[in-house]
Amino acid sequence: xxxxxxxxxxxxxxxxxxxxxxxxxxxxxxxxxxxxxxxxxxxxxxxxxxxxxxxxxxxxxxxxxxxxxxxxxxxxxxxxxxxxxxxxxxxxxxxxxxxxxxxxxxxxxxxxxxxxxxxxxxxxxxxxxxxxxxxxxxxxxxxxxxxxxxxxxxxxxxxxxxxxxxxxxxxxxxxxxxxxxxxx
Amino acid sequence: xxxxxxxxxxxxxxxxxxxxxxxxxxxxxxxxxxxxxxxxxxxxxxxxxxxxxxxxxxxxxxxxxxxxxxxxxxxxxxxxxxxxxxxxxxxxxxxxxxxxxxxxxxxxxxxxxxxxxxxxxxxxxxxxxxxxxxxxxxxxxxxxxxxxxxxxxxxxxxxxxxxxxxxxxxxxxxxxxxxxxxxxxxxxxxxxxxxxxxxxxxxxxxxxxxxxxxxxxxxxxxxxxxxxxxxxxxxxxxxxxxxxxxxxxxxxxxxxxxxxxxxxxxxxxxxxxxxxxxxxxxxxxxxxxxxxxxxxxxxxxxxxxxxxxxxxxxxxxxxxxxxxxxxxxxxxxxxxxxxxxxxxxxxxxxxxxxxxxxxxxxxxxxxxxxxxxxxxxxxxxxxxxxxxxxxxxxxxxxxxxxxxxxxxxxxxxxxxxxxxxxxxxxxxxxxxxxxxxxxxxxxxxxxxxxxxxxxxxxxxxxxxxxxxxxxxxxxxxxxxxxxxxxxxxxxxxxxxxxxxxxxxxxxxxxxxxxxxxxxxxxxxxxxxxxxxxxxxxxxxxxxxxxxxxxxxxxxxxxxxxxxxxxxxxxxxxxxxxxxxxxxxxxxxxxxxxxxxxxxxxxxxxxxxxxxxxxxxxxxxxxxxxxxxxxxxxxxxxxxxxxxxxxxxxxxxxxxxxxx
Lengths: 184, 659
Description:
The complex is a heterodimer.
Chain A lengths: L3 E11 L9 H9 L7 E2 L6 E6 L4 E6 L13 E4 L2 E4 L38 H5 L5 E11 L8 H13 L1 H16 L1
Antiparallel strand pairs in A: 1-7, 3-4, 5-6
Helix pairs in contact in A: 3-4
Chain B lengths: L7 E6 L4 E6 L2 H7 L2 H12 L13 E5 L13 E6 L6 E6 L3 H8 L3 E5 L6 E6 L2 E6 L8 H12 L5 E4 L2 H4 L7 E3 L2 E3 L4 H7 L2 E7 L4 E2 L3 H20 L7 H4 L13 H6 L15 H14 E5 L9 E4 L7 E4 L2 H8 L4 H14 L5 H14 L15 H14 L3 H5 L2 H9 L10 E2 L2 E2 L5 E3 L2 H9 L20 H9 L8 H8 L14 H21 L19 H9 L5 H21 L14 E3 L2 H15 L9 H6 L3 H9 L13
Parallel strand pairs in B: 1-6, 7-12, 19-20
Antiparallel strand pairs in B: 1-2, 3-4, 3-6, 4-5, 7-8, 9-12, 10-11, 14-15, 15-16, 17-18
Helix pairs in contact in B: 1-2, 2-20, 2-22, 7-21, 11-12, 11-13, 12-14, 13-14, 17-20, 17-23, 18-19, 20-22, 20-23
């Protein structure tokens, strides 16, 4: 066991009572992550989504977390203040059970990166665009083991999803075939 | 490459059951931008002037504004255009909500419906896949209920649905198209949708919408957001609270209804109750609103919270906005509890929250005057509130007297006769207006009411304070940061405007200044309606975030269309004249440009004549309100001039400028 080390964790505190369901967070997120930056927008690509059922007064902004290859078993329901929520409503995973947090064309998973930018943004853009302050950016100091967790690149996350879907053999085969044809 | 717009319309022929994705002409975007502008152009090009509103050849167009779906705050309006069964003129009403951006992400700028379906259907647009689906199981269902059922049936909770209720199916002349928290309500668009046999249009889109110059565009968006934030923290001093902020009047948020209840007329737009509001009522109404309104809600990509979710115990939840909070209450001379309850049923039926209550109050008045009798209305209840439910239920089914009332007060009065016409007293161009009855003629409002093609004053007015501020100091403070004015002269008009004396209404602002002020107000609305930006962030409130100085930049950076203030003004004029031309072609003339006789107690016929004359001249119209050949030429609308000459609307030779 290595020594404990201090680390800053970036989080977004979500106040569901303040959400007015406008989805500006989805707009700016998808625009920021477009390539080139801001060149297009498409809420279906957003890494934050407002899960909303207006007639039940349910509004939950959820930002994308880890990719998972299997959906969980035994999903529950929560009743809070008389409103019934599906457990998935609070879940941040990019998961086979739903189409949230996946690229609409490729199906590859999406994950919130807190708007990493150069120069850095003062806060993630969804927070900046939420004038009703349903989204609050917070930095928390936590103690972690010294070994740094390896942060995965977007491509790695995508590859992992492809691996889960098609298996290693198929992927290597395809990569080999593609590189052959590129070299022509 | 097309930016901000998709460059494709969806053409659906309901008679044939055909669906086509049609590429649009980018030149039309340059000429008219989008939304109302291109809608009007399509109506001009494709619907014969003689077409009946309820006919296969009439079109029903759901158009998105040019900026809808881009990150521009509040660009979410769907402009629905057709020819109205009630006014028989061009109808266009708009809705906010979420539908227009979703259509853009599905890859279309407009949905154009023509023909008529023999059976009730709904349309399902899921990106490239578009279907006409059977809706027989939805017949008679409420508008909100229908949207829910469709989302469940398609297993697509993210689909945005615009639907009609029973009123639309029955072709009630004031039937609305409902879309969650929003609706396109005026002039009977829902009736035309019902006539076409379309119960709903559901949309889901997951495609990208591109911007021409992204960095520049985003900088503009961020400026607007910052301005909104600042403006929300600093309401305007010296005006009533509901006009001090941005957005629609914040009816869902406020408890204090002294101003509306004492200044707007109750019943059939008759009675001013100047001492109505007191502590007891304030307390009771606050309890009602607090117990039924669960959340303040927004439209797509907008921080303002102009809507509310309303849950009346024992009734399904619905969403409401703006002044429909009080229209039923005041028409029925009742209280807020009744108003919010009946509005639930009315929303499911899908009726206009202005016309419907007024039509019912009109019927009650006719009954009390003995013009309508128990023979006409067998079983008409004695209880006042029950009467309104009774009438509403019959109107939306066109049952008994409801069949006549469903045509609105103008046509109903004609059918009923026996002096009923005098009771249809609050109409312009055959359409019910806000229940406002005031003292002294206001020249600005006279022109806007008389010449407005939008039929609804809230969609014409804005920018300029509704009345003068009492002191010079207050006025000077107001103009200090008035960056939105297109020209410095507007500041002077306002600075000189007094409550009393020589420089007060009706003779000040002068006729010339009045034309300028009306022009500015109209121009901003026409721009908003082409761009799909909500009037609540632009043309309606004082000192809004969008204005003539930043709009051209949004268009250039967003759509890649080179734009400046003059060119944008020219586009707005072109669209304004095209809408007018559509109505002129359908017979609208000067004689129709009249506010209700009792709108103001003190009228000034000579001044009113002069105002109309000068405004027409200012606009380049002849004495009958018809755009001249020359002014049409200047706007690149020669084809309109030629059509007018062919039809004998304008003389064959050079039409003389109006004098």
